[in-house]
Predict the structure.
Amino acid sequence: RGRAAARRARRSSSNVFSMFEQSQIQEFKEAFSCIDQNRDGIITKADLKETYSQLGKTNVSDNELEEMLKEGKGPINFTVFLTLFGEKLNGTDPEESILNAFKLFDPAGTGTVNKEEFKQLLLTQADKFSPEEVEQMFALTPIDVSGNIDYKSLCYIITHGDEKE
């Protein structure tokens, strides 16, 4: 079983490296190294448990960890790790993800968010924007006469580029 699994892993991942840019692969390598606590080249249940513990999450069940490991369909070496991320990332539509994020700020479903409220969020929450970054973003943002951002158009600009550029 082990040899067949290794052959399958090799076959299914032969072009996984072409899915990412070199800088992305390097970032994944760093992440893999952080998770691979014992540095043996394979992510195990103990590695995951220790990683979660370092992140302050100590209540992860063995069952949850085993479910994560099952996604690799065998030992999770770096190539399998990269393949799993490739599958996850290729299954997401960035435009849809961004739209869903905006919808959180539009409970009425109008397709718009208030510019001033959104500006406050950008300046004060999570990865805070600088006032200059906010102004740069608003320069490309479709804003109506009542000061609302058309976030569907903004999502298109973010994912496809601005036709004026």
